[in-house]
Amino acid sequence: MSEEVLEYRGDEIRQKLNELADLQSAQDAIRLRKQDEIDKVLTEEIKAQLAEIDKRYEADFELIQEKVKETDGYIRQAVLELGTSIKGNRLHAVWNKGRVNWDTKALDGYAAGHPEIKQFRVEGMPSISIRPVVDQKAKPANYDPVAQAEYMRQSAGKD
User: Fold this and answer.
1) d(CA 43, CA 36)
2) Position 21 in a domain
3) Which of 2, 29, 105, 119 has the most CB atoms at less than 10 Å from its CB?
């Protein structure tokens, strides 16, 4: 790939990444506005009742959560020891053979003197993960996610 194509595609992808980040921020802003509206209609009495309901169910939820953790651990250990997948009515514990890893750098060095082993080398397809940028200084100082959400809503013709 030429340097010019790489630069052009890189700029295009950077623009799309920025667009994706803006869309995600707009989603967050919509969720925040929705929650704000919900909070405004909930009276203190209703909020207290909701807190009481949460409190009543908290112990049961924690008990079940602990049982889930114990049962999950038991199943994983048992399937690991058995060495085969087991299917229940609603869940399937899938046993996978351990992955084999090689010291690629060392083998590449070895292959330089023994090219016959290169025929056994297989390289998988690359994968992509999209992660947040740690340094958020790139965001414009005047960025407003609520305004972005409003703009996105209007530009989509959903008004």
Assistant:
1) 13
2) yes
3) 29
Tell me how many domains the chain contains: 1
Cα separation, 35 vs 77, whole angstroms: 42
Helix (H, G, I), strand (E, B) or coil at 70: helix
Cα angle at 60 between 59 and 66, to 5 degrees?
A: 90
pTM above 0.90?
no
Domain annotation covers residue 62 = no
For 6-25, write each residue's pLDDT tens digit: 888 888 988 999 999 999 99
For residue 100, give both structure tokens: 């084999």
Which residues pair with residue 86 across a beta bridge?
A: 93
Range of the domain at 7: 1-41
- Over 27-42, what HEC string results? HHHHHHHHHHHHHHHC
